[in-house]
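Example record for the data management plan.
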Amino acid sequence: MDPQAFLDHLTADPEVDGSLVHVQELPARPPLVQPFPAGFPEVLVGRLGLLGIDGLYPHQAEGLAALADGRDVMLATGTASGKSLVYQVAFAQAALTVPKATALFLFPTKALARDQLRSVRSLKLPQLKASVYDGDTPRSERPLIRRNANVLMSNPDMLHASILPDHARWADFFLRLSMVVVDEAHVARGVFGSHVAMVLRRLRRLVAHYGGDPRFVLASATVGNPDELAERLVGLPFQAVTEDASPSGEKLFALWNPPVLDEESGARRSALTDASSLAASRSP
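Corresponding structural encoding:
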C-alpha cells in the first residue's frame, strides 16, 4: 500500500482528520563512502572486501581516527549504520600491530554477544581470537578462554559477578587491554544504568592496577545526549560521533492523536484501539 495514499484516505474522513496532527516526509539518503585511510592494513582491506565492504562511511572514519588519536568515543548514529564495524576494525588494527592486545566487548544480551561473535569471526583474521564469556559458557571452557581469547564478549552482570571478583586470574588480560566496548549503551539507564556505571568504574580501577590503559567505545542508535551519557557511565570525557552518512530509504512519519471521548476529563480513546483499527484499514 502507498503510504501517502493511505494518509489521503484517512484525511478524507472528517471524523478522523483531526487525529492526524503532523506528517513529515524524510527523503532518501544515498550512501556516502570514502576510501580506507592511508596506512590501513592491506590484509584488513582484503578481508572487508570479501564481505562487500569497499570503504568507510565518514562517521566510521571519524570514529576510527578519534580512537587512533587516543580518545574515547561515543558512536551515536542510526540503526544499521555500521557502528559495530568501527570497534571491530579498530581492535583488528590493534591486534595486527600489537599481537598481545586484548579487548572486552560488553552487550546487554547473550544473543547480541553471539551475533557479534559471528561478525568478528567473519573477518577470518587469525589474530582475532574471539569468545563469549557469560553464564552459558561451560565452566570447563572458561580457563581456556581466559588464557587464549583476545576478544572477550560478555555483559555487565557477568563482569560484575564473575570477572571482576576473580580479577587476579585476569591480570594478564587487563594488562594488555586496549579497548572496552559498551554496545547498546542507551539500555544503561535508571537503576541498571547506575549499576553499569559503578561496574565500569571498578573495571577502570582494576585495569589501572594491573597496568592497562584501554580506550572506551560506546555505541547507541537511540540517545539524544550521547556524550553526556557516555561520560556519566564511564567517568571520562568522550568524543561523540553523531553525523550519520549511511544510506537510508525514504520515510513518511505520521503522528496520530486519538480523539477525545470526554471533553470534561480530556480522556481520549485508547491508543492501542486506534493502532489496531489503523493497521486493519485499507484504502479503496
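Summary line stored alongside the record: The two ends are 10 Å apart (CA to CA).
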